[in-house]
């Protein structure tokens, strides 16, 4: 097992064996009402699930505002590994000596951790001044000082025997059994979709922990690039993240350039003396390489560091032990951040969008249409773009096209990244809500019918124009990259995987057409509605016999094919980070 190294107790690994991935934390929230993250203003909460048509009238924050606020919050926050039984009152009193605390929460992840947000950044320096690097008899420590501390109790009186806090709630996603129970007790299919969203969406505490993890990594990267920023992107911030999803991080070095542009005034032009390399790609590889080394050797809690530098989009992958997040750090990947912003806008415009996307992501996972490993299957990102496209095609449309979001843009929204025009309106409040009042039940059924009958062999999916277009190449599934129109985000998907998706969509549409299958039946314990669609075996009995299961040899063959499709030489890798298209 890899050693955990923290501010107060920094250890060298006991042995070099490293787990590729740390187990996810149970993430039991232990907190007191009144001081906890649950108290944060409601606009900071992830968009909640509401009934179709009942939109929240409160002004919605821009993506950049949310990112900046949360980053600033994270900079005032520390992570503390605590003894398992600790007096919360004494703990807070002790920390308050360093300044007022804005909020805090505890969670369990193979040990007890506290996330403590001070009101002022200075408090962290004060706490650091009182902290020491541990001395070990048998091992040498690397005296790396971070905001990740280890708390030791000097006196037993600081322990408590009763449960830690007055109120505790679980942050881990419900088990499948619990989920099916919740879904069965729902009143309608719409209620089922909203229930699933509520149960699995990222919680306020989980979001805070994601930003804090980025902030801790930023501190390490700042040793080389003092003004860098590490932004979370992907499902951690695009409003479609489910508890347990990976943490995609973008190391932003351009922030440095942005600051410097304004300094070029007067007759003198000062610039940094820098080293040059032949291409941006080589620069990216060099930067990630040193940061990867640094995380591996000195990053408290960073284990299983892998440098995947030859991928189309080079990255450093590692596990952050205390938070349990599987992290992917990239740089020079600004378009992905912009894609996250676009998805955030689409997810915030209408409450049905997230409920539908969550359920379809679940459906796809339940039927092994998606996987956590890269391959010839569709990714969550591509599936989400398919849902957005479908919602643009409704009459009246539920979501606007990207072109219409561009037409609403002001001068301040203008954004060109590496020659690609990524301009769209950033202020959500200026986008007119849809007049469409279709129910989630109808939309789910229609989604399956729409893609069960889509001419994938002829047409491409294009959310920029919101209409089908002739496919420019022979890839089985063509989904135009919103910001780089010549690229296909689902180039990795094989014909057999696409066929599987189509078959399952048809089958699901058929199930939903059966009157008795989508009537609530809470008392009978018989699966109904969405539950029926999420049970992999239940569906297959509706398929013609020959389609139920391929012979083992065929399944092995298609697996081998997908692995081959996904070889590093191939540019059709599905992993968003290893092959951005
Ligand atoms: P999950 O991690 O599966 O929950 O979803 P995710 O949206 O975070 O996907 P992933 O971690 O695979 O990728 C992170 C982000 O990278 C996505 O949200 C997109 O913004 C971007 N991305 C992923 N795949 C592609 C791709 O093929 N092309 C482009 N242009 N961007 C991609
Ligand atoms: Mg992700």
Structure write-up:
The protein is an alpha+beta fold. It is 35% helix and 12% strand. It is built from 17 helices and 15 strands. The chain has helices spanning 63-75, 88-96, 122-129, 176-184, 189-200, 204-221, 254-261, 280-298, 334-349, 351-366, 380-392, 402-407, 440-452, 495-513, 530-534, 536-540, 552-565, and strands spanning 28-31, 77-82, 101-108, 112-118, 148-150, 167-170, 229-233, 247-252, 302-308, 315-320, 325-331, 416-417, 420-421, 459-460, 469-470. It has a five-stranded mixed β-sheet with strand order 7-8-11-10-9, with helices on both faces. A hairpin with a 4-residue loop joins strand 10 (315-320) and strand 11 (325-331). Helix 1 (63-75) packs across helix 6 (204-221). The chain binds guanosine-5'-triphosphate and magnesium ion.
Structure ligands: guanosine-5'-triphosphate, magnesium ion
Average residue-wise pLDDT: 82
- Total beta-strand segments: 15
Structural class: alpha+beta
- Number of continuous helical runs: 17
What is the end-to-end distance? 36 Å
Biggest beta-sheet profile: 5 strands, mixed
Q: Name the beta content range.
A: 5-15%
| Estimated helix fraction | 25-40%
